[in-house]
Amino acid sequence: MDTDILIIGGGASGLMAGFGASRGSGARVTILEKMPRPGRKIMITGKGRCNFTNLKDWNDFQSHIRTKSNFLRPAFYNFPPSEMIAFLQARGLPTVVERGERAFPESHRASDVVDTLKKAVIDAGAELLTDCEVKSVSIDGEKFVATCGDARSWRAERLVIATGGLSYPVTGSTGDGYAWAQAFGHTLKPTFPSLTALVPAGYKLPAPRRTDTSLPKGFDHRDSAGEPELKWHIDRTEALSALGKALCGCSLKNVGVSLAVNGSTVQEEFGDLDFTDGGIEGPLGFELSRACVKALINGGKAEISVDLKPGVDHGELAARVSKLWDEIRKDQRSAKLGGKERFRVLLGKLMPWEIIPGFTAFFPGLLERRGKNEAYLDIKSLVDALTSWPFPIAGYVGYERCVVTAGGVDTDEIFPKTMESRLKKGLYLCGEVLDVDSDTGGYNLQTAFSTGLLAGQSAAKSL
């Protein structure tokens, strides 16, 4: 079957590439998606609410890009966040902007975003085929040829690879595009999970370490023999320890965190953090994960420190704790309480109640029993614990549940103004298959939309 522009992948970048290639061009555009429905990964973003973009201007937006941000500048200005919002609203999908300039569909249903994108692509004239897994890509004369598992094949003058990375393989992202890009001569930057759960030491029960020999060479950290080595990978399904059970489900708001690698602080953030069945997640956990995972796979030691009282002077905090402790001890309602119960009352005034079991399990020596109803409180140690709660990191959740893949096709080999390959004329790459990743907060999806639209438009103009 012949087509003018063939797009492999029906995710965020592929759908937008299909729209850009079809709208007003008159070109025959075909999108091949391996899954039964397009946009599967979009469906799980923002916990199903779909934080589809972030309205920061370029100067602020680029500070959240963790690779070569200048590569994205042309794509961003060609299709900025404001135009993504206008794109959805013009097609009947109201949007809202929440804290941090994060944009969501007003319905807070990711499926509405997918449905709107799908309709826009079809209305523009593209053919969208699902359940069509491409098994091979080759060249026949001047045309690209893609063959699916059911033996159907397509010939096209222009090829757009929009297959995503390795994150959340259940959505169809299994790294196929990397191998095809390599076949056309492209270089891969080593890939690793980003925006993923970080697992503190002692959070999970001990389990055998695994290697994953299914990963193609260059897709993950390798040992000296070139074998895939995932010694830091801790599967999300591994059982929680007593400490993990005490912390799992707890959330911390407006806390400070810092990441130290080999004893030196490399990143500091402020915001919200969640403890889950995977480990440390939430906005802060994700923001630290890229640097933390990279440090671990490079053989470094990583530790996260949580400050429950950011911005409060230690002396001031110590005085406050001492005053509260005296008040509790003198309160008639505490007369019949033992030292541990009084200590819990104190902690309830200093942190969310739900985090207390995990905190006391982590710091068992803060209270020394002295008599039936008396106890000595080590105020200095408590203040230190409140302001610097250390979590040595034992590993991370891998591609099976990470939000985005870091690494990918080297962007030095792509024309930033068109997304066309510098190595193979007529080949375009966009989205997560590229070595481009950003912080959580709508930046990665906007990158996919912007690079996808530019790739599609450029492919159509080059015909």
Descriptive report:
The chain has 13 helices and 20 strands. With about 475 residues, it is an alpha+beta fold. β7 and β8 form a beta hairpin.
Topology overview:
Elements: E1 2-8, H1 12-22, E2 29-32, E3 53-54, H2 58-61, H3 73-78, H4 81-89, E4 95-98, E5 102-105, H5 110-124, E6 127-129, E7 134-140, E8 143-148, E9 153-161, H6 176-183, E10 188-194, E11 198-200, H7 242-247, E12 251-261, E13 264-275, E14 280-281, H8 282-297, E15 302-307, H9 314-330, H10 339-348, H11 356-362, E16 367-369, E17 375-377, H12 379-387, E18 389-396, E19 404-409, E20 427-429, H13 443-461
Parallel strand pairs: 1-2, 1-9, 2-6, 9-20
Antiparallel strand pairs: 3-5, 4-5, 7-8, 8-9, 10-19, 11-18, 12-13, 12-15, 13-14, 15-18, 16-17
CATH topology of the largest domain: FAD/NAD(P)-binding domain
Largest sheet: 7 strands, mixed
Distance between the termini: 18 Å
Secondary structure category:
alpha+beta
Please report the first level of CATH classification, the CATH class of the largest domain: Alpha Beta
Classified in CATH, the superfamily of the largest domain is FAD/NAD(P)-binding domain
Strand content: 15-25%
Tally of alpha and pi helices: 13
Residue runs with pLDDT of under 50 for 5 or more positions:
213-229
Give descriptors for this structure.
463 residues; alpha+beta; FAD/NAD(P)-binding domain; 13 helices; 30% helix
Brief summary:
The chain has helices at 12-22, 58-61, 73-78, 81-89, 110-124, 176-183, 242-247, 282-297, 314-330, 339-348, 356-362, 379-387, 443-461, and strands at residues 2-8, 29-32, 53-54, 95-98, 102-105, 127-129, 134-140, 143-148, 153-161, 188-194, 198-200, 251-261, 264-275, 280-281, 302-307, 367-369, 375-377, 389-396, 404-409, 427-429.
